[in-house]
Design goal:
The protein is mostly beta strands and 161 residues long. Helices cover 14% and strands 43% of the residues. The protein is built from 2 helices and 10 strands. Strands 1, 2, 3, 4, 5, 6, 7, 8, 9 and 10 form a 10-stranded mixed beta sheet that branches. The longest helix has 18 residues. It starts with a helix and ends in a 12-residue tail after the last strand. 24% of the residues are buried.
Length: 161
């Protein structure tokens, strides 16, 4: 009886296990939540603000994105903001029309449909803007949103008028 056969089988088994372990199984897990798109997300109490973007269309910018409340009614009462330069410095005020947008539970509100516009002013596509959204129940939330142009094919259908 040869003592080499069990050793060879053991080495072969170990090699197979090692090959499987090193076969390129990678994880795409990330501990940091992120939005796999252009827009920015924030929560205001039970109201979820999703995929906010300012889209420059001529001399106006349209606020796109959506709102949904996971329970209870809420109302977006006011939006204010500041245009930012490439270094993140404030370069101008953003003024949105006063109005109330009701957010009912489990009902998606598309902000693009609301035609929330602000004069373009110092907004520059490729830079950001700081916005404050005021909700009746959820309170005030601050969010930094990207500024894009309708030259971007993903936003070519967004129109200020």
């Amino acid at each position: 009886m040869s003592t080499g056969a069990p050793t060879r089988r053991g080495v072969l088994a170990l090699a197979v296990v090692g090959a499987v372990a090193l076969s390129g199984c990678t994880s795409t897990f990330t501990a940091q939540p992120y939005t796999p798109g252009v827009g920015t997300n924030v929560d205001a109490g039970d109201t979820k603000v999703r995929a906010l973007v300012l889209v420059v269309d001529g001399e106006q910018a349209v606020l796109t994105g959506s709102l949904v409340s996971i329970r209870g009614n809420d109302t977006l009462t006011k939006i204010t903001g500041k245009a930012l330069d490439a270094n993140g410095n404030e370069v101008g005020d953003l003024t949105f029309p006063d109005g109330r947008i009701e957010v009912k539970p489990n009902t998606l509100v598309k902000l693009t449909d609301m035609k929330l516009t602000t004069p373009k002013g110092k907004l520059t596509p490729g830079f950001n803007a700081d916005l404050t959204l005021q909700f009746e129940r959820g309170g005030a939330v601050d969010i930094t949103v990207p500024v894009v142009s309708t030259d971007n094919p993903d936003y070519a259908d967004v129109k200020a008028g």
